Amino acid sequence: MKYYKDNAGKVYAYELDGSQDHLIGDKIAMTLAEVEAHINPPMSMEQAIRHFKDMTYTHINKRVLDYDVLNNTDYQNIESFAKYAAVTTSSRHAISVQFITWASNIWDAVNTYHSTLTAIPTNAEFKAVLDSVVF
User: Fold this and answer.
1) Which string of b and e fits 63-100 if b means at least 16 CB within 10 Å?
2) What is the crossing angle of helices 45-71 and 93-115, to 10°?
3) Each residue's pLDDT tens digit, 57-81
4) Of the candidates 56, 60, 57, which has an alpha carbon nearest to the alpha carbon of residue 101?
5) What is the DSSP track for 58-93?
6) In Å, how far from its chain's centre is CA 26?
7) What is d(CA 98, CA 111) in angstroms, rounded to the nearest whole number?
8) Do 9 and 2 meet the contact criterion of CB atoms below 8 Å apart?
9) Which residue from 19, 25, 30, 80 could staple onto 75, CB 3.0 to 4.6 Å apart?
10) Taking a C-beta distance cutoff of 8 angstroms, is the pair 81, 75 a contact?
11) How remote is the C-alpha of 113 from its chain's centroid?
12) Under 8 Å CB-to-CB from 40, ≥6 apart: which residues?
């Protein structure tokens, strides 16, 4: 597709084969950067924070699933550890407290990071925050 915009900024797309060129009129051809931004608009800060929260949940629960595989357990997600962390006599108490503490530390790091944002970071920059919290 070929992308054009009118004086009001409204975007129009036309076939590359020229069959719709008669419709272009006085519209202005968009640059590659403008087309990219139109097709893949940047996230708002609110959308980015939601995206990074989802990344955080995925990061935490991946660690749980990895633990399940290595230890032949079936916790499946971080919430499963809460009941064992509350029972000090449970054989699962220590690992449960470790997971809950680690997850809490991650959320503290994420919330601190979000409170200082002035621009939307890349996924790699945000993942570095998650990876910085030691298990």
Assistant:
1) bbeebeeeeeeebeebebbeebbeeeeeebeebbeebb
2) 160
3) 999 999 999 999 999 999 999 999 9
4) 60
5) HHHHHHHHHHHHHHT----STTHHHHHHT-TTSTTH
6) 40
7) 20
8) no
9) 80
10) yes
11) 14
12) none
Supply 81's token pair.
């550890």
- The DSSP call for residue 44 is P
Residue 61, both tokens: 């629960």
| 3-state SS, residue 13 | strand
Contacts for 110 with CB less than 8 Å, ≥ 6 apart: 52, 53, 56, 129, 130
Domain locations in the chain as residue ranges: 2-39, 45-131
Predicted TM-score of the model (pTM): 0.71
For tokens 């609110």, what's the residue? 46
